[in-house]
Amino acid sequence: ASCTLVGLSATSGVPLFVRHTGHGKPPAYALIGSLNGIHVFGESHGVTLCTTRTHNANLIWKTYHDSIRLILIRGSETVGDSCDGSLLDLMFASLVLLLGLETLTSATNVERLKRDIRPCYVLLDELLSRAMGCEDHHGFSHLTGCAECLIPSEQHNLQNELEKFAEGADSTYGCVMMQGHVLCGTRNFWSLSHTELVLLPLLVASNTFTVARDLPIYLPNKSPNVPFRMLVIRLTGLISVVTLCGPTPTLTEMMRAASSFWAPSYQTLEALSSLLPCNISPSLLSHLDNAIIGLILVNYDHKKCVSCVHLSEESRSRCLSVNRKVAALRSVYRSVVGPLLQPPAMPPEDFPSRLHPDHVPLESYVSTDNYKVYILQSSPYHLLVLFPPALPIHIARQVSIRTLAVFTKGKVPKI
Length: 415
Hints:
Blueprint: E1 2-9, E2 15-22, H1 29-44, E3 51-53, E4 57-64, E5 68-75, H2 84-99, H3 101-105, H4 110-117, H5 121-132, H6 141-144, E6 147-148, H7 155-168, E7 173-178, E8 181-185, H8 194-206, E9 212-219, E10 223-234, E11 239-245, H9 251-262, H10 266-271, H11 282-285, E12 294-299, E13 304-308, H12 314-317, H13 322-336, E14 363-367, E15 372-378, E16 381-387, H14 393-408
Parallel strand pairs: 6-13
Antiparallel strand pairs: 1-2, 1-5, 3-4, 4-5, 7-8, 7-11, 9-10, 10-11, 12-13, 12-16, 14-15, 15-16
Helix pairs in contact: 2-5, 2-8
């Protein structure tokens, strides 16, 4: 299996970058030029080439602002789908996030643009690895278009503290993250677009730093040409606080402020490590049925999703490895959400949907020799629950309904 992303100048056809993951080597520049030539030939005859398939590859083309053309090339053994278009949108948005739209669309020096794009490689590689289903890349945000979250039991108190801290930094966009997952965010943070909420946590997780980082970024939807300063300050070994600021305060001032402000909460923050690797509080975890070996819950209205694939009790984990659980849930999500179940209330741009308007199913399931997945839709939620293959489907349905109630009713923290 392999996956390659190629970026070219739409006007000259000059390759700007090539990123590759998986087996084999990336395509030669001569082949890339031929692929671009096919697209240009179609355009000259009034035809826009979007996707094609050969005996050994699946290809998708997409041009942005008549300036940057992206080509996604999957090996034929790698499953491609209609979500690949949204994946290309995320990859272009990654370039905008770090460089700004004007830099990408008005560049006249191709060699300089190539150099400018290099800092984007880490984020592009992360998205490419997720598309491939590589090990250690277990997230679902690139599919759901929602931020990956953790559900702590102290969410309300943590939220209040974050609002005060962000206000002191003269920022309305702030969040507390742990290993690329959002623990809580300010009200305005959740007003960011789906794309921005997917990319910001990935950017924080992929940037290595010891104590703090001051990084200029552009919000692809909200502010593609005027940069914010993303200040990331590590509070504990796993937890960081992130704020989007203007010219002030300085990073040094923010580090001092964070040190004094969060010091009384240090023990509480350290205790949040108990959320990993299951991503939900132990008290909430105890309410899940023992038959469940994995799940994804998505709230499209709040732009949040939570996944749990590390259920580690022997009775739960012996049938599938963590990587296979992730692959199973991703495969089912791609095949069911959009093509079969109602698209999300606030979908990412071009979210795939082939539904007949007179038929809107609310439940579905997938059964294979290795697992069962039951899917529930209850606006604004989608819940996918992974079970061992031997579990009867009527039991899987009952457990799934109870599980949705555990997450959405009562006094437990909600996403």
